[in-house]
Amino acid sequence: MGADRAVPRAPESGQSRSLFRGAGERAPKGRGELREQPQTTRTRQRIRTAPGGYPQPMTPEDDYTAQPFVPKRGRSLTALRDAAAGCRGCPLHRDATQTVFGAGKASARVMLVGEQPGDQEDRQGRPFVGPAGKLLDRALAEAGIDPADAYVTNAVKHFKFTQAEPRKRRIHKAPTLREATACGPWLAAELALVEPELIVVLGATAGKALLGSSFRVTQVRGTVLEEEIHGRPERLVPTVHPSAVLRADDREGAYRGLVSDLEVAAGALT
């Protein structure tokens, strides 16, 4: 028999991973590819191969998406709302009381998209029922848009918050762009069913979710934009979120600015 071939040993502490390959051998194929690795749990984890082909775990947020929970057939707003109640597309569902889906008529001409539910919305299960929602209803009516004829929703459907102790007040925490993107399939489904003539974008988080990370509400508020959103041509009017009005030092001036932007939206609907 020929001479025995040396069996490469695992590297000791401090040794290079290159000892796993013999001289002249090429690195395993699959650089940068995604491949399935068997797991001992019931699920399978996606692994990204690093340069050289060695496994490199993906960032958990890479897997955030609501898409598997969105119904593929028999869609209606009721069906979407029922399905969204069981959404586990990102970790925000773990601490929230419930999913807060959009509300309004499927025939609404205007859709208002905010950031995420607040404390009251999370408890009641309906969007814009807290102080910011009441201010928004007043501003809409003053601008000439009947709040009852609008569909209201949020870019993120679960309340994200911080809390020092279990019984302490829950403090709003802005969702990340990745969390808003994970919730995008719900917003896309709402847009496809409602087919609004106009979208009013309330604040920076909603704007970035719809128009990308470069969106700046201060640069385009009160203007009519025409963009493709989730594969559909849409008209949008960005403005500040009503909660920003409540936090403003000059609350009356901030409120007048919100009404002025909503008047632009009302004009675009005529």
User: Which class do the helix and strand fractions yield?
Assistant: alpha/beta
What is the tally of beta strands? 10
Number of helices: 9
Tell the overall outline. Answer: globular
Strand and helix order = EEEHEHHEEEHHEHHEEHH
Major sheet: arrangement of strands: 5-4-8-10-9
Explain the layout of strands and helices.
Elements: E1 34-37, E2 45-49, E3 55-57, H1 77-84, E4 110-114, H2 119-124, H3 131-143, E5 150-154, E6 161-162, E7 171-172, H4 177-182, H5 184-194, E8 198-202, H6 204-211, H7 217-220, E9 225-229, E10 232-239, H8 242-247, H9 251-269
Parallel strand pairs: 4-5, 4-8, 8-10
Antiparallel strand pairs: 1-2, 2-3, 6-7, 9-10
Task: Provide structural commentary.
The protein has 270 residues and is of the alpha/beta class. 30% of the residues lie in helices and 16% in strands. It has 9 helices and 10 strands. It has helices at 77-84, 119-124, 131-143, 177-182, 184-194, 204-211, 217-220, 242-247, 251-269, and strands spanning 34-37, 45-49, 55-57, 110-114, 150-154, 161-162, 171-172, 198-202, 225-229, 232-239. Strands 5-4-8-10-9 form a 5-stranded mixed beta sheet. Strands 1-2-3 form a 3-stranded antiparallel beta sheet, with no helix packed on it. A two-stranded antiparallel sheet has the order 6-7. Helix 3 (131-143) packs across helix 9. Residues 1-58 have low confidence and may be disordered.
